[in-house]
Design a protein that fits this description.
Helix content: 55-70%
Strand order of the largest sheet: 1-2
Strand content: under 5%
Structural class: mainly alpha
Mean pLDDT: 81
Radius of gyration: 25 Å
Number of helices: 18
């Protein structure tokens, strides 16, 4: 997929969400609310869920390796409440009568109301998050509400097992819709190929997305029988879980910042050029996506790339530009092992330390993440040594290709070339 196509796709997604929102607000302003108490209650539920959101959405500024299922849906209570309203046909046995456009209007109003405090602090939901919410909930409402209120759903399916099966199929389609939208929005960024992103989103479907959809369906069914009192009964446990996870997410954020700070130790001490670790980590992660690594593998790759030079702190005198390739093999091995030992004491997964320790091994004995870090690090050294010009970047890439016989994995070098070609051939700019 070319760079222009994702850009046009993002514009189309935003335009569709904006048009749907405008139509929904216009209909509500013209015709008023059907079942205002239901609309108000679910709107409050969505607003409370947004107030308790765990931070920026993954699609609105995620780190190089998007971590955690909850990063994909930072406001699960709001998402579940929105989906429940889209699937609500009755309240305490009485038909509700709201249209799909009213569902969208209530969801937008609740989302914006709950986002106000976050926006005031500069941490509000990004346009990607809002557009996905509007289109996904609108899709579910359009598939359910007309069929239910026209009587076609009851006439053809009834209220037995087939009704539950219909909801299950609808939830699966809703999850697929959300996954496609998320991949399209992320693919608009340089270094984010659509195919691997869509695969990662599909892999994540059994996680938080499935939990949100299942909770939304259960809330809708419970409100249909017991009325609006069922809403807090089912929402309070999810809210408490979400609030608890906010603390966990804060710890994870601090953890990643600590790793990034530790990675800068070699730069501050003068062993590596400024920004070297961040550039290697960003480019390594882009190559990892190109090679279809999963989300957890990208996290390991990013952490290892950030700390791959930490063993240089054991040197008495810095190597010029931090390029350890000029050192004897035994010295390279010692630096790699010392770096791995330091990494193990930081508490990161053992796989991260293993990648750092493998940097001095022959590439055929390395894991794929270690091969990626080795190749990208060599490219960064060669490209920065040439002054960062386009000609120097081309020469650096050619030298890597010449070394594929014994130093670098050919598939990694070609993936690096594709990443660089998409983003403009040249070194990654300083972070």
């Amino acid at each position: 997929m070319t760079a222009a196509l994702p850009g046009r796709a993002v514009v189309a997604v935003y335009a569709a969400a904006a048009c749907l929102t405008a139509a929904a607000l216009g209909q509500v302003a013209w015709s008023g609310l059907a079942g205002p108490m239901n609309a108000l209650t679910f709107g409050i539920c969505i607003a409370v869920g947004e107030l308790a959101r765990s931070g920026a959405a993954a699609g609105a500024g995620a780190p190089a390796a998007v971590e955690g299922a909850w990063g994909r849906e930072p406001a699960p209570l709001a998402a579940a409440g929105a989906l429940a309203y889209a699937l609500l046909g009755e309240c305490a046995g009485r038909p509700t009568g709201h249209s799909p456009l009213q569902v969208v209007a209530v969801v937008v109003a609740g989302t914006l109301a709950g986002a106000v405090p976050h926006v005031a602090r500069g941490r509000g939901p990004g346009p990607d998050h809002v557009a996905r919410r509007v289109l996904t909930v609108g899709f579910a409402a359009v598939c359910f509400q007309p069929l239910y209120h026209s009587g076609a759903l009851e006439h053809r399916i009834g209220h037995g097992p087939l009704h539950a099966l219909f909801l299950l199929v609808l939830l699966v389609l809703t999850l697929l819709c959300d996954a496609v939208l998320a991949a399209v929005l992320l693919a608009a960024r340089p270094g984010y190929p659509y195919g691997p992103l869509l695969r990662d989103e599909l892999r994540a479907l059994p996680g938080i997305g499935s939990a949100v959809c299942a909770t939304g369906a259960v809330i809708a069914l419970a409100v249909a029988v017991a009325g609006l009192w069922a809403l807090p009964v089912f929402c309070v446990p999810l809210l408490l879980t979400q609030l608890s996870f906010r603390r966990y997410a804060a710890v994870r954020t601090t953890y990643r910042q600590t790793i990034a700070s530790l990675a800068r130790a070699t730069e501050i001490a003068g062993y590596t050029p400024p920004g070297h670790a961040r550039r290697v980590a960003a480019l390594s992660t882009a190559v990892g996506r190109e090679m279809r690594l999963s989300g957890p593998e990208l996290t390991v790759l990013e952490y290892a790339a950030l700390m791959h030079d930490i063993g240089q702190l054991s040197l008495v005198d810095p190597v010029p530009d931090g390029a350890t390739a000029v050192l004897p093999a035994a010295e390279q091995r010692r630096i790699a092992l010392l770096g791995g030992a330091v990494v193990r004491r930081t508490g990161v997964p053992p796989a991260v330390a293993a990648v750092v320790e493998q940097q001095a091994d022959p590439y055929r004995e390395q894991s794929l993440p270690a091969r990626i870090v080795r190749t990208v690090n060599a490219y960064e050294d060669l490209a920065q040594g040439s002054g960062g010009s386009a000609g120097g970047a081309l020469a650096a890439l050619e030298r890597l290709r010449l070394g594929t016989g014994h130093d670098y994995e050919p598939a990694v070098v070609e993936s690096l070339a594709r990443v660089l070609a998409r983003g403009g051939l040249g070194p990654v700019p300083p972070g």
